[in-house]
């Protein structure tokens, strides 16, 4: 179980969001909604240990996320930032690096990735392409597929459909539903949650 209790985080401009509390069970989807992109990104960064907390706590199965425990927790997490961009390399090279990780699922292979790509509407030929040659919409779905094959317990996605048209957004929603269906706890940052296939809980930052 993921628990966020009385979480407070300070913005770079000196403002803050306060007293965010929610719990999430395996297989559930949490939407973190709000008009301000910066607020959503701030909260999600704190959730994965990339931003210090001003108050409250985050825990998984009762174990607190702290500066000392963050590296261990990240082995159970997959995090896709909003403006992810690889400066060099190919999808194939990154996938090979991921498959070699000690925390990678047993038997992780290209066929598993291609199953994800079929669901997400990604052409198989993208596997050998460089990241800088991929349109933002395709890159976003490629990175979502990599989060999927890692099979992490907690998946945190910051605005994972911002680059998509309606069809692409539907594909992303399918991918998120599949992760939750596989037992992952999925946290999605977005301006509103109506495009998602299923949402169990919503945190509305507009009322902060």
Blueprint (SSEs and pairs):
Blueprint: E1 2-10, E2 16-24, E3 29-33, H1 37-47, E4 55-60, E5 63-64, H2 70-74, E6 77-80, H3 91-99, H4 110-120, H5 136-150, E7 154-158, H6 166-181, E8 185-190, E9 201-204
Parallel strand pairs: 3-8, 3-9, 6-7, 7-8
Antiparallel strand pairs: 1-2, 1-4, 4-5
Largest sheet: 5 strands, parallel
Radius of gyration: 17 Å
Structural class: alpha/beta
> What letter string, H or E per element, gives the SSE order?
EEEHEEHEHHHEHEE
Question: Your description of this structure?
Answer:
The structure is a single chain. By secondary structure, this protein is of the alpha/beta class. Helix content is 32%, strand content 24%. The protein has six helices and nine strands. α6 links the parallel β7 and β8 (185-190). α4 packs across α5 (136-150). The chain is globular and about 45 Å long. The two termini are 24 Å apart. The mean pLDDT is 91.
Features:
208 residues, alpha/beta, five-stranded parallel sheet, four-stranded antiparallel sheet, 6 helices, 9 strands, 32% helix, 24% strand
Brief overview, please?
By secondary structure, the protein is of the alpha/beta class.
């Amino acid at each position: 179980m993921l628990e966020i209790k009385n979480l407070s985080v300070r913005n770079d401009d000196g403002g803050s969001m306060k007293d965010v509390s929610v719990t999430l069970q395996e297989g559930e989807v949490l939407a973190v909604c709000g008009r301000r992109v910066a607020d959503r990104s701030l909260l999600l960064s704190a959730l994965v240990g990339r931003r210090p907390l001003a108050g409250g706590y985050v825990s998984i199965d009762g174990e607190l996320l702290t500066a000392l425990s963050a590296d261990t927790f990240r082995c159970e997490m997959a995090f896709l930032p909003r403006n992810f961009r690889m400066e060099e390399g190919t999808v194939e090279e990154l996938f090979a690096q991921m498959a070699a990780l000690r925390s990678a699922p047993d038997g992780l292979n290209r066929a598993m990735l291609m199953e994800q790509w079929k669901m997400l509407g990604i052409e198989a030929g993208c596997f050998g392409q460089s990241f800088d040659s991929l349109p933002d919409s395709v890159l976003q779905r490629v990175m979502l597929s990599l989060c999927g094959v890692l099979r992490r317990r907690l998946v945190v996605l910051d605005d994972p459909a911002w680059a998509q048209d309606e069809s692409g957004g539907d594909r992303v929603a399918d991918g998120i539903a599949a992760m939750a269906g596989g037992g992952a706890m999925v946290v999605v940052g977005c301006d509103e949650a109506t495009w998602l296939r299923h949402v169990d809980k919503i945190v509305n930052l507009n009322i902060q």
